[in-house]
User: Fold this.
Amino acid sequence: MPGNIGPLEIIIVLIIALIVFGPKRLPELGSSLGRGIREFKETITGDKRDDDDDEDDPDDDVKALSASATTTPVEPAESEVTPDKRG
Assistant:
């Protein structure tokens, strides 16, 4: 049967993947595949995990920008400085 995948076929596929990608890159590919499957499942079910630190939070960018804006004073350019005309 063409749809029946046994342990021998899985071993052959893993050996070919090891040869093609190498032993250093294989765990990285496995983790990215797992992350992709997890994101797909979350999208289908509508669930969202809060303990996932890998995702980029857009609020972190806003917090970083606001923190840098408050800690770094902006000096006006010389052309923008107007002398006092008290007199």
Notes: The first helix runs from residue 7 to 21. The chain has a mean pLDDT of 75. The helical segments are 7-21, 26-45, 58-71. Residues 7-49 form a domain with the Single alpha-helices involved in coiled-coils or other helix-helix interfaces fold (CATH 1.20.5).
